[in-house]
Each structure stands twice: as structure tokens, then as C-alpha cells.
Amino acid sequence: MASDEAADLMNIGEGITFLEAEFPEVTVSKLRFLESEGLVRPLRSTSGYRRYDEDDVARITRILRLQRDQHLPLKVIAELLDQPEPTDTVDGVVPAFRDSVGRRGRTTGTRTADGTLAGSVSVSKVELASMVGLGEETVSELER
């Protein structure tokens, strides 16, 4: 990695400091987890340290916003990130996911005029695990 390029990159601590303004609870572990899930691929220095460029930080910000604001599982977020032209309007994937939840779950809300679900949905651990592509044990761990 050239020194000019290195000056434009952040190490993981600098990335956390930058992200904490909007996401005060973001951790080093969270960034490492997002990498292990294949959602972000930071460069590596010659000594193996993660180096985040502007695009990496923008991608992480988008992931964290979708989790926080849309309450989407990472599996759905990954689909959104893989779309050719990224958009935060999640119109294509989210309604299909929410329709799936609405069909399987017990709604405590109502459908709006356009047919989208408003309110909350109750699903079992088995149903949730199936919908988000995780094992039931993993869902149980996340519940704690």
C-alpha cells in the first residue's frame, strides 16, 4: 500500500471514532463481525491491520442505518447492498421480507392502503430463524 493511499485510510479505531457520532454503541467487534459476514471488506496493511477507505465507512454507515432504522436482518441488508445501484429506499426487498413475516406471523397491527404492514408482528423462534436464514440456536443466543 503506497503512503499516499495509506493517508486516506482509517484504522479500525479511527473508524469507530468516526462512526460513534451517529452510532455511539458501535464496537470493534461489530466491525469485525460485519467483515466476517462478508458485508464489508477493508483493505489490509502489510502487517495485517484493517484499513477502511471512504467507501468502506459509507457502506458500514448504510448497514448500521438499515439495522437501526428499518430493523432489517443482515441477510436482507446483504441483498440490498448487492443491488447494482445502492438505495436506502429498500422498496424491492423489504416489502417482500415484510410480506413473508406478515403471512407467517400474527400481526398486532394493520395493513395500510397500499397493503404494507404497519404495527408489529409476532413470530416464533423457529419462524424467525427460517426467515432470516439462521439456526434456532443462534436466534436464541441473539435474544439474550
TrEMBL record:
Keyword Amino-acid biosynthesis recorded: no
CDD domains: HTH_MerR-like
Signal peptide: none
Domain called HTH merR-type: residue spans: 21-83
SUPFAM superfamilies the UniProt entry points to: Putative DNA-binding domain (SSF46955)
Any single Pfam family the record assigns to this protein: MerR_1
Keywords: DNA-binding
UniProt name for this protein: HTH merR-type domain-containing protein
InterPro entries: DNA-bd_dom_put_sf, MerR-type_HTH_dom, MerR_fam
Gene3D superfamilies tied to this protein: 1.10.1660.10
A GO term, aspect molecular function: DNA-binding transcription factor activity
